[in-house]
UniProtKB/TrEMBL annotation:
<keyword id="KW-0804">Transcription</keyword>
<dbReference type="InterPro" id="IPR011008">
    <property type="entry name" value="Dimeric_a/b-barrel"/>
</dbReference>
<dbReference type="InterPro" id="IPR036388">
    <property type="entry name" value="WH-like_DNA-bd_sf"/>
</dbReference>
<keyword id="KW-0805">Transcription regulation</keyword>
<dbReference type="InterPro" id="IPR000485">
    <property type="entry name" value="AsnC-type_HTH_dom"/>
</dbReference>
<dbReference type="Pfam" id="PF13412">
    <property type="entry name" value="HTH_24"/>
</dbReference>
<dbReference type="Pfam" id="PF01037">
    <property type="entry name" value="AsnC_trans_reg"/>
</dbReference>
<dbReference type="InterPro" id="IPR019885">
    <property type="entry name" value="Tscrpt_reg_HTH_AsnC-type_CS"/>
</dbReference>
<protein>
    <submittedName>
        <fullName>Lrp/AsnC family transcriptional regulator</fullName>
    </submittedName>
</protein>
<dbReference type="InterPro" id="IPR011991">
    <property type="entry name" value="ArsR-like_HTH"/>
</dbReference>
<dbReference type="InterPro" id="IPR019888">
    <property type="entry name" value="Tscrpt_reg_AsnC-like"/>
</dbReference>
<dbReference type="InterPro" id="IPR019887">
    <property type="entry name" value="Tscrpt_reg_AsnC/Lrp_C"/>
</dbReference>
<keyword id="KW-0238">DNA-binding</keyword>
<dbReference type="InterPro" id="IPR036390">
    <property type="entry name" value="WH_DNA-bd_sf"/>
</dbReference>
<feature type="domain" description="HTH asnC-type">
    <location>
        <begin position="4"/>
        <end position="67"/>
    </location>
</feature>
């Protein structure tokens, strides 16, 4: 994997704000001609710095009016238990992020649901029946003050 120079970093900053920017416009903004800019962009993609391009949706507008973060503690950490739990979580579309964490919990998950009834259904009929769960603690999001997807670059 190659090192990032100042032009690469500038390209990444621009792409995080404006993923659909035309290569020619990107080239203009970073001070390159289109062909070298396109080569750099391809290298950034091939080297894994850019994992993909996607639209950022408004959760409420698409029917996910409730978000929650749920701390999960497993009853044991046997490889089979952890693997079964992780596999069950990763299949869930309403679980939009899963983090293995330190502290009093083992995992933190971010769930998006239509409403409180849907979250309750997920928690009682799905989450609490997943393998290995000892206990959970849910925090419902009241409002989103900041939700950046951009990675802070030096």
């Amino acid at each position: 994997m190659s090192e990032l120079d100042s032009i690469d970093l500038k390209m990444l900053r621009i792409l995080q704000r404006e993923g659909r920017i035309a290569t020619t416009d990107l080239a203009d903004q970073v001070g390159l001609s289109a062909t070298p800019c396109a080569r750099r962009l391809k290298r950034l993609e091939d080297d894994g710095y850019i994992r993909g391009y996607r639209a950022v949706l408004d959760p409420k507008r698409v029917g996910c009016g409730l978000q929650a973060f749920i701390n999960i503690r497993l009853g044991d950490h046997a490889e089979k238990t952890v693997a079964a739990f992780q596999s069950a979580l990763l299949r869930r579309q309403d679980v939009v992020a899963v983090y293995a964490i330190t502290g009093s919990s083992d995992f933190l998950i971010h769930v998006m649901a239509a409403d409180l009834d849907a979250l309750s259904e997920f928690t009682t009929r799905t989450l609490l029946r997943m393998p290995g769960i000892r206990d959970t603690q849910s925090s419902i999001v009241l409002s989103v003050l900041k939700a950046e997807t951009a990675v802070p670059l030096a």
